[in-house]
Amino acid sequence: MTNPQRRARRLAGLVLLAGVALAAPGVSGQQARAQAVGGAQSIVPPGFQRVTPGATTPDRDGFLRRWLLLEPINKPNRSNAGFTGSYVRQALTTPYFPGQLTAMPRDGQVVRAGAQPLAWHALESTAFNVRLFDFAKALGKPTYGVIFWVVTIVDSPREMRDVRMAVGSNSASMWWLNGQEAVGLFNDRRMVMDDVLSDRITLKKGRNVIRGAVINGPGLSDFCIRFLDAQGRPITGIKNDVR
């Protein structure tokens, strides 16, 4: 068989495979796009594990480890020194993709931030902090000059009043509970446990949706988050899930 014939046969095989994939029952166009984003859905970054069926609970110190993480949005910043409150607020409240503050994403779902197709990944951190830098690096995505969006669900067995959301992040970040801004961390900072506490807020009985956005220029990116009760004790009697 000549080289041109081999190339022709190889091309025909690729076309056939593509046709089978497009026609396969149960594979949506969105799923196909997710699979096309660097084949990243099969990768488990260092410091993470796959999400298992059923809800989990916070760790013994109350930290939420199960998250939906969006692949990073490009936002070039040569330094973290300019992360003033006004800059961070403007950068993290700019609409980048549909349903940014309203929709509940799904594992493998692809959204478009400008020209960037970005996939959501359901992952569980093996440590109290969620290492966004390692997440991006493992997927071959930009690690500097980026914005990470994250979402999780907390299911509370009862209404809990006067609790505080306790957050640490590297670098700046903003956080929302059930669509309402709860806490912001501004300026260049390293991730410190309970670095900033929200005002006293209420976890409603049942489903509560937490969203966060972390912005960073050079350096590592990570965060940690938990809820503290009115006496400042970690809240562990809640469920944590991403669906």
From TrEMBL:
Highest taxon of source: Bacteria
Signal sequence region: 1-23
Keywords: Signal
Protein name: Acetylxylan esterase
Organism per entry: Sphingomonas hominis
